[in-house]
Structure to design on (498 residues):
């Protein structure tokens, strides 16, 4: 199970697990999208605390979910990014689309 | 002087993406790089290998050839080669956000390689394949 | 059916011993082996690679060729090849405790490979090199 | 430092660290031998708690030290062997030369 979903009213949190690359991103994408569809959250939190590695496939993953949420005017929030993950997100300019918290920040 | 070399060949199965970057990272780990250096290399290799699988061989299967040269125990030179479809406009392909891979590709693979490594060069022949060469000099460790 | 293949070439530097076994282990890890299975494979690979460094190429340097074939996602077949001095009496070489390596070699490399893997075969040509082929079938995991 | 030496009268304990293969065994061998020479223990404990891997080069290492100790009629004791290490020692019949404790046993 690479994604654990936690629903709290209009707030949905997806806890991602493992490594994000092209290979693993497929399954995660489906899991998150069906959670969005089912729960129609006004805010989605993607929690990266258990992601040990991410390449630009993870950017595709985040951007795709961002677009999906936009349709319902919902917000995206990214938490617990390790330095490696944050560096990739920074390069992609993801902080212009979503609030990004580094690991350890609260 | 080349102080160590690794040659590695794997088929373009997407489940090998993770193996490829881990293998290169553990080879480079002998040089005692910083965590950030090793992560940069891992990420760049992941991009190059993924491109072989997603773009070069698309629906087909083929071999991915990875060579890692260690120069003077300090500089890491990595070649990732495929015999896939090739890139006809390399300049365009290397532009950030450009992708032929559809919705879920960010078009940032080359941007990551360029920014996380010191040098990047791409050579390609239409229908013949592509070679990506990347280089990174590690910081000198005082021990 | 061969479901995955890894080819790996490294020079016979003793610092590559650790890399070689880790690389093979992470390749095999895709099959979700038990910890004991992965450790058995790691140990057997370590023995075969060390033999290339210590015996085949002794004071010289040469390449070590490692091939890992995964058959039906269940059986792992590993070849470790060198172009070194070769073994003239294989039967004797494979006997437990036999060593030409002096004091600090236990003469148990082949015994470990034989006992930790399901199959072991050794082919060698004097002055040409040696190929060690080992095979292990993983237990079927119910998941 | 792959070997930490602890001297307690005639009891010398060598805490080994890392992985034992042909490459790493050299340094460990020298460290242990000079500790034996310096302290002339009546018992040497080789502690494997921080050894994460060992191949038959480790057998050579243990047997060599055993022979060295024998000259002074000293004993060898091996502690904290992981299952992987114990399996290699078992294959070599090391339990006929030294008492071997597995990790976690006391
Ligand atoms: N090895 C390759 N073989 C063929 N085409 C490639 C290869 N690598 C990259 N490309 C082309 O370059 C484009 C940009 O690549 P990249 O920057 O890595 O982004 P992405 O992989 O997300 O598309 C790809 O969409 C593809 O058209
Ligand atoms: N790749 C090789 N090339 C040449 N000789 C070898 C090779 N592998 C093993 N041998 C010979 O076989 C002997 C036994 O090997 P082994 O059982 O692994 O024990 P050890 O490595 O401790 O000597 C070695 O001492 C050596 O003479």
């Amino acid at each position: 199970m690479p994604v654990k979903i936690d629903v709290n009213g209009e707030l949905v949190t997806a806890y991602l697990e493992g490594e994000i690359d092209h290979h693993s991103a497929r399954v995660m994408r489906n899991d998150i999208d069906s959670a969005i569809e089912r729960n129609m959250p006004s805010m989605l939190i993607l929690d990266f605390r258990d992601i040990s590695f991410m390449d630009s496939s993870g950017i595709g993953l985040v951007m795709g979910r961002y677009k999906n949420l936009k349709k319902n005017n919902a917000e995206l929030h990214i938490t617990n990014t390790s330095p490696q993950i944050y560096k990739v997100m920074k390069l992609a300019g993801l902080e212009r689309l979503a609030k990004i918290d580094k690991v350890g920040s609260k | 002087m080349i102080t160590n070399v690794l040659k590695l060949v794997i088929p373009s199965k997407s489940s090998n993406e993770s193996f490829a970057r881990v293998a290169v990272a553990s080879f480079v780990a002998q040089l005692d790089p910083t965590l950030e250096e090793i992560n940069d290399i891992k990420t760049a290799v992941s991009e190059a290998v993924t491109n072989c699988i997603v773009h070069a061989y698309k629906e087909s299967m083929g071999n991915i050839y990875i060579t890692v040269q260690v120069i003077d125990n300090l500089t890491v030179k990595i070649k990732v080669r495929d015999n896939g479809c090739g890139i006809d406009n390399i300049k365009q392909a290397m532009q950030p956000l450009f992708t032929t891979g559809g919705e879920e590709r960010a078009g940032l693979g080359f941007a990551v390689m360029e920014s996380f490594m010191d040098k990047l060069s791409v050579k390609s022949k239409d229908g013949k394949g592509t070679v990506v060469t990347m280089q990174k000099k590690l910081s000198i460790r005082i021990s």
Notes: The CA atoms of residues 78 and 100 of chain D lie 5 Å apart. Chains D and A do not touch (no CB pair under 8 Å). The helical segments of chain D are 22-39, 56-71, 83-92.
